Amino acid sequence: MEVIWITGDTHGDWIHRLNMDSFPEQREMTKDDYVIVLGDFGIWRDSPQQRWYLNWLEERRFTTLFIDGNHECYDILDSYPVEEWHGGKVHFIKPSIIHLMRGQVFDIDDLKFFTFGGAASHDISDGVLEIDDPRVKEWRDDPDKMYRINHISWWEREMPNQEEMDEGIKNLAEHNNKVDFILTHCTASSTAALLSHGLYKPDKLTDYLEEIRCNVDYRKNIFGHYHQNLAVSDKDICLYEQIIRVN
């Protein structure tokens, strides 16, 4: 039987989250077992440092799966060829580091996982700048400014397009709108409101996930993004540093 663990945002710090001391269960794992990261995985730039960290992760005993978050370099992610794996579309970052694309249903160990990454960034209140904007220097000199730079620290692709949303609805319908797990980065509008006591307002993606939540028979929706470890309800669980086994 394949063993499946799930954790929240790693932001590229895979060594801290997934070393042997933090996650000793990996001693009994093989490449046929999985750790799933719920977005903000940490694909930021093609640098020697990131290649070293990816090689470190590739050498773990398990296979790493991840959905995308709002802090990913989509220029890099979208450059990988789309392949098929366990019934859904993926990008192979390494042979055992696999990006689970949006709107897909994967069959892993007789469990069905619906995946939909992405989220709206909330740390852009001062705007998104182009790299040649003179305010970029101001942003670098003033850490309190909430700027992001297009294609450097912010990507429009953090939010889904209509094709991805339509594909998700179609794939769920092909599975009779029944899955075991809904894996997302942000969550449905009503769940986000409960989690934040009304602080987080709905957007296009959370409303889409609300539609799915209301129309799909699922066991658990497990999501990241909000940097908390919290069961919002019996079925809706937010993860951050915790690593939980689901089978």
Number of helices: 7
Strands across the major sheet, in which order? 4-5-6-3-2-1-15
Multimeric status of the protein: single chain
Backbone structural class: alpha/beta
SSE topology string = EHEHEHEEEEEEHEHEHHEEEE
- Overall structural domain count: 2
CATH architecture of the largest domain: 4-Layer Sandwich
Radius of gyration: 18 Å
Helix content: 10-25%
| Mean pLDDT reading | 92
Task: Give a count of the beta strands, DSSP E runs of length 2 or more.
Answer: 15
Notes on the structure:
- The chain is an alpha/beta fold and 247 residues long.
- The chain folds into 2 domains: 4-118 and 159-245, Purple Acid Phosphatase, chain A, domain 2 (4-Layer Sandwich), CATH 3.60.21; 121-158, no CATH class.
- 24% of the residues lie in helices and 25% in strands.
- The protein has 7 helices and 15 strands.
- It has helices at 14-18, 48-58, 74-77, 135-141, 162-174, 189-196, 204-215; strands at residues 4-7, 34-38, 63-67, 83-85, 88-94, 97-100, 104-108, 111-116, 127-129, 147-149, 181-184, 220-223, 230-231, 236-238, 243-245.
- The strands form 3 sheets. The protein has a 7-stranded mixed beta sheet with strand order 4-5-6-3-2-1-15. Strands 7-8-11-12-14-13 form a 6-stranded mixed beta sheet. A two-stranded parallel sheet has the order 9-10.
- Strand 7 (104-108) and strand 8 (111-116) form a beta hairpin.
- Helix 6 crosses helix 7 (204-215).
Give me the secondary-structure topology:
Blueprint lengths: L3 E4 L6 H5 L15 E5 L9 H11 L4 E5 L6 H4 L5 E3 L2 E7 L2 E4 L3 E5 L2 E6 L10 E3 L5 H7 L5 E3 L12 H13 L6 E4 L4 H8 L7 H12 L4 E4 L6 E2 L4 E3 L4 E3 L2
